[in-house]
């Protein structure tokens, strides 16, 4: 049974409380703008929904657990209309027929947004069409006076994106709508079809021009998300995805100056199918080179949800893969199945991040397969199971030290589904356990002439650090220094730290880390 749990109730310190908005708008319940938890994941992929009240509750629930960023996937720019356009008629003619024009090609775009006048340039060709109880748009590509034109038919189920931007503005959040996704090459769906890149770029320019008019004055409109995926590895000259990125990102830089482009490339550590961590460095540089001067965030997918990359600690390469990864790579040792863990790939990605580009991480909040009694994603296939907060903490531990921001795919269903009506969702578990500390980095450091260890991470203030070193008795040391920057820092005396030393933090709230951090070699 899948049910969305919209409201998370938890008691927190007054420092995190914002006064709720008392008014009710358009029949929806009043907004509650309180932040009830501060988890390190601050951005999520979300659907754009036509129902403004459903959108409000979704945004409210994300904001309540510390979220400040919303990302949508861009619809596919299709090379021919599907059944959704069969009922589209304008003045008694099929919408694909334009009086006085020769229509060379008809593209299609099914979306959840209602465009404004910024999309409609050419009188007679471009128009909004209400037909069969649905809203359509017809848009010409190229010069308005061309006798022969390609056109795009757009079908929408409502203004889901407009609802999302409205709610994000009210909650002080940022939205990155997905760019129109390129048509896929027949027989190679992982590549774009270059035959349609020019048409895609022309349509992208029209869409972004409309965004500039509709959302340009909104602080909630942060930029766009590049919807076509690629691997974060070195690319060959003339790579078709890099060519697509260059063409579409040039349009973004021109139409939306100063707005950010978010890209989320994947990594694949599987031996025989993937690639070693070292190739990620050039991959990040190649992606960054497509930004055409626009600010960019490269949010590397950590690969744990798909089973492409493990998150094991330093020194665990010879141990068996996690049970949930065995269906993907077999019941073998980590180093037999994979080139390395997430931390190795993120370390390589961080080596060549140029000015104007931020390195983010996209932690995948799901399991490669479902098990009995577990909720997750049914459609689209493949089936994916929801994960646990304990495993999310491990993913943050592996990548958080390298990333300026942590985001996650995806809010629905993985953070909201419930295995049973009385079972907590993943967002419930975050709300109840967000104070648990997470260490993302640890180094040996002397302070005031004393040897010790400086740890970085989240929710570290106060309490102790417990050190577990091979061949030595466990030591619990009181924190003697605390600082705060992008990450929190805490120091405790411990002279014997070295590679293989594991550290468990217990903070001033009495909360313990769900997993130990192991110092790398």
What does this structure look like?
The chain is an alpha/beta fold. The chain folds into 3 domains: 43-67 and 229-433, TIM Barrel, CATH 3.20.20; 80-140, no CATH class; 438-514, Immunoglobulin-like. 21% of the residues lie in helices and 25% in strands. The strands form 7 sheets. It has an 8-stranded parallel sheet with strand order 9-2-1-19-15-14-13-12.
What's the helix and strand layout?
Elements: E1 41-45, H1 52-64, E2 69-71, E3 89-90, E4 93-94, E5 102-111, E6 127-131, E7 134-141, E8 148-156, H2 160-171, E9 174-176, E10 184-185, E11 188-192, H3 197-215, E12 223-225, H4 240-255, E13 260-263, H5 278-288, E14 296-301, H6 326-329, H7 334-337, H8 342-349, E15 357-364, E16 366-367, E17 376-377, E18 384-386, H9 389-399, E19 405-409, H10 411-415, H11 426-433, E20 438-447, E21 450-458, E22 464-468, E23 475-478, E24 481-484, E25 488-493, E26 502-506, E27 517-518
Parallel strand pairs: 1-2, 1-19, 2-9, 5-8, 12-13, 13-14, 14-15, 15-19
Antiparallel strand pairs: 3-4, 6-7, 7-8, 10-11, 16-18, 17-18, 20-21, 21-25, 22-23, 22-26, 24-25, 26-27
Helix pairs in contact: 1-2, 3-4, 5-8
């Amino acid at each position: 049974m899948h049910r969305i749990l919209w409201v998370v109730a938890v008691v927190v310190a007054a420092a995190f409380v914002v006064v709720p908005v008392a008014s009710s708008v358009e029949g929806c319940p009043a907004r509650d703008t309180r932040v009830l938890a501060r988890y390190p994941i601050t951005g999520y992929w979300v659907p754009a929904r036509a129902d403004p009240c459903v959108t409000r509750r979704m945004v409210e629930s994300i904001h309540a657990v510390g979220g400040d960023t919303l990302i949508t996937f861009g619809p596919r720019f299709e090379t021919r209309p599907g059944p959704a356009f069969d009922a589209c008629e304008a003045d008694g003619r099929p919408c694909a027929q334009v009086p006085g024009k020769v229509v060379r090609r008809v593209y299609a775009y099914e979306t959840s947004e209602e465009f404004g006048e910024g999309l409609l340039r050419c009188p007679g060709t471009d128009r909004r069409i209400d037909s069969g109880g649905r809203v359509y748009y017809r848009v010409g590509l190229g010069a308005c006076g061309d006798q022969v034109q390609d056109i795009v038919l757009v079908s929408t189920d409502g203004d889901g994106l407009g609802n999302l931007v409205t709610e994000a503005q009210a909650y002080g959040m940022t939205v990155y709508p997905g760019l129109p996704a390129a048509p896929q090459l027949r027989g190679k769906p992982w590549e774009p079809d270059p035959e349609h890149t020019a048409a895609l770029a022309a349509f992208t320019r029209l869409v972004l021009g409309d965004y500039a008019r509709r959302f340009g004055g909104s602080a909630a409109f942060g930029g766009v998300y590049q919807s076509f995926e690629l691997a974060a590895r070195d690319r060959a000259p003339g790579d078709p995805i890099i060519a697509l990125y260059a063409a579409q990102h040039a349009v973004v830089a021109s139409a939306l100056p100063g707005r950010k482009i978010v890209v989320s490339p994947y990594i694949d550590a599987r031996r025989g199918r993937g690639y070693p961590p070292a190739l990620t460095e050039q991959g990040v540089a190649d992606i960054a080179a497509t930004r055409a001067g626009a600010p960019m965030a490269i949010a590397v997918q950590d690969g744990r949800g798909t089973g492409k990359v493990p998150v094991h600690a330093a020194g665990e390469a010879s141990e068996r893969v996690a049970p949930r990864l065995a269906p993907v790579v077999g019941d073998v040792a980590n180093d037999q199945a994979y080139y390395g863990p997430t931390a190795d790939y993120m370390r390589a990605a961080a080596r060549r991040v140029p000015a104007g580009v931020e390195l983010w991480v996209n932690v995948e909040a799901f399991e490669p397969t479902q098990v009995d009694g577990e909720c997750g994603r049914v459609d689209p296939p493949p089936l994916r199971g929801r994960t646990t907060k304990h495993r999310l903490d491990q993913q943050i531990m592996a990548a958080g030290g390298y990333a300026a921001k942590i985001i996650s795919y995806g809010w629905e269903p993985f953070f909201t589904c419930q295995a049973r009506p009385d079972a907590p969702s993943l967002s419930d578990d975050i709300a109840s356990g967000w104070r648990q500390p997470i260490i993302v980095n640890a180094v040996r450091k002397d302070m005031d002439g004393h040897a010790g260890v400086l740890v970085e991470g989240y929710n570290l203030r106060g309490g102790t650090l417990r050190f577990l070193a091979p061949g030595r008795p466990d030591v619990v040391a009181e924190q003697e220094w605390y600082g705060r920057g992008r990450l929190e820092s805490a120091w405790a005396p411990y002279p014997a730290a070295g590679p293989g030393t594991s550290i468990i933090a217990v903070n001033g709230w009495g909360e313990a880390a769900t997993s130990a951090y192991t110092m790398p070699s």
